[in-house]
Design brief:
2 copies of one chain form a homodimer.
Chain A (H helix, E strand, L loop, with lengths): L1 E6 L3 E7 L5 E8 L5 H19 L8 E6 L3 E2 L4 E5 L4 E4 L1 H9 L3 E5 H12 L8 E6 L3 E7 L2 E2 L30 H5 L1 H14 L3 H5 L10 H9 L5 H23 L3 E4 L2 H6 L1 H14 L2 H4 L3 E4 L5 H16 L6
Parallel strand pairs in A: 1-4, 4-8, 9-12, 12-13
Antiparallel strand pairs in A: 1-2, 2-3, 5-6, 6-7, 9-10, 10-11
Helix pairs in contact in A: 3-12, 5-8, 8-10
Chain lengths: 323, 323
Amino acid sequence: MRIGFDLGGTKMLAAVLDDDRRIVARTKNKTTGVDNDGVFAQIQDTIDGVLKKAGISRKDLESVGIAAPGPIDMSSGTILSTPNLGLKDFALSARLGDALGCPVYLENDVNAGLWGEFVSGVARGKRHVIGIFPGTGIGGGIIMNGTLFRGKNGSAGEIGHITVQTDGRRCGCGNHGCLETVASKTAIARDLALLAMNGQSPVLAEAGATDIKLVKSGLIKKALDAGDYGVADVIDHAAYFLGIGMAAMVNTFDPEMIVLGGGLIEKLGSRFTDRAERTMRERSMPRLVADVAVVEAQLGDDAAVVGAADLADREHGGEETAG
Amino acid sequence: MRIGFDLGGTKMLAAVLDDDRRIVARTKNKTTGVDNDGVFAQIQDTIDGVLKKAGISRKDLESVGIAAPGPIDMSSGTILSTPNLGLKDFALSARLGDALGCPVYLENDVNAGLWGEFVSGVARGKRHVIGIFPGTGIGGGIIMNGTLFRGKNGSAGEIGHITVQTDGRRCGCGNHGCLETVASKTAIARDLALLAMNGQSPVLAEAGATDIKLVKSGLIKKALDAGDYGVADVIDHAAYFLGIGMAAMVNTFDPEMIVLGGGLIEKLGSRFTDRAERTMRERSMPRLVADVAVVEAQLGDDAAVVGAADLADREHGGEETAG
């Protein structure tokens, strides 16, 4: 048996998977630890909890795969820094491996999620897949020739930081006009909060959503469905730029499939992705884009745990590709 | 012995290489054929010419690697269409293989050139390399994990067609604001021709360079060196956008090295590449870009023949990576 673990900023999810990559037990906890030791204790509690649910013990574990927010030093299995979790140089693979007595593999959460879709979800059977996940920022993952591509620092796929507006807004990374400055969920929330302020969206105004933090995906959907003035325009604007970013991916990677995922995509679905896809098709090389499939991720929260568990398995067993 | 062959729109270059990838003989001819049969006859003449120079005959050949302008169907070794050569569904690998009695391998010329730099030039010993070659358009090649990445259609690396100006000029591909609309040699020549017209560059005006076709790389260098008003500005503008494209490559591929090549780069050198590199560094994720080397290609016209010959060797011998 094996565990897949998704260490998120607000929650952590552990799952026990059988040999067919089926989840046989799940445990979810809020992430409350504020430093390495606190988070480590919580991870162990959550793992013990899911082991108990599955009716097994630590000694039954062959491997553990952990999906965590980056940046990660892949060679040592260390989370370098995660401001919102208070983690710093957190040697999770070694520490948890010692505690559990089995190999622990650490992977960037976006890569793990895309890998989950690749081995058990919507991208099964493909060889060249790009994953784009608009959230607080925009996460990206790249699978080529059936292999997760990591680049020299394990960071390939920072799709959120390609320039789509030459002189656009300043991004947290220091650049201007990055894709995530116009198409992340946060960027959409920023524009929608102003609509709430200006009285252009009764639904948002009623929800007090002049506070960007209150502009959740569900509320965006509700305002869209209500036909609120301006909301559709904000969504179309973001989707347009997402499509430009997708076209850059098509032109440089020649992929078979682009997987779009994350909470915002789950809520808005084709209302958001159709517009992005149309722009992508308009702006890609015709010969390359003709047979590119644009699909929504299908595993939701399970993607990262399934992917992390599978990657740990392969690392453990020495495999490198799947298909 | 093996032959590397570069089939270009204006000239074709054949070279005989020994087992250490050293060129022992070269023959260059103007490309004058205007259809499949005409070009095929010229290719055979050029090969026979270089064989004679090397003092060997067709039966001494183990393999031939050909670099050709795309698009190419890799699986059948066919050049699908090349308007300026008049080629259409040209099954070069099969046809030349029959004529020579040895395997003939066909590769996109940009990929072949980058591969040449990778096995024998400036990128030797690297694993993750991006090649960008501003010319009529902007060619791009991607080597990851020591392997040339081709994507599903053999066309990965169309770096010239990533959007760098959201609402920029219309590109030949149908999109707007593609990198090659602002940073190709053709785009630079277009802007410089206007300077010649407006009397803002005496050197260009004297050369009659209101005709874009007359704005050659050597003339651009001369006008720059003369301190002509406006010319430096055009070059900086193009280099700035090239830097934005390079930053997109750094952020999505996490490479070790970016190789810049082609006639324009050869002539202008650091006058062009320094500005591009500075913009790239400003606009990339700091953690990723810190140790990215930006270098000029060093093999010149030999890159594609060396690369094509080496790829043919590997294809023939079944190898797939180098480093």
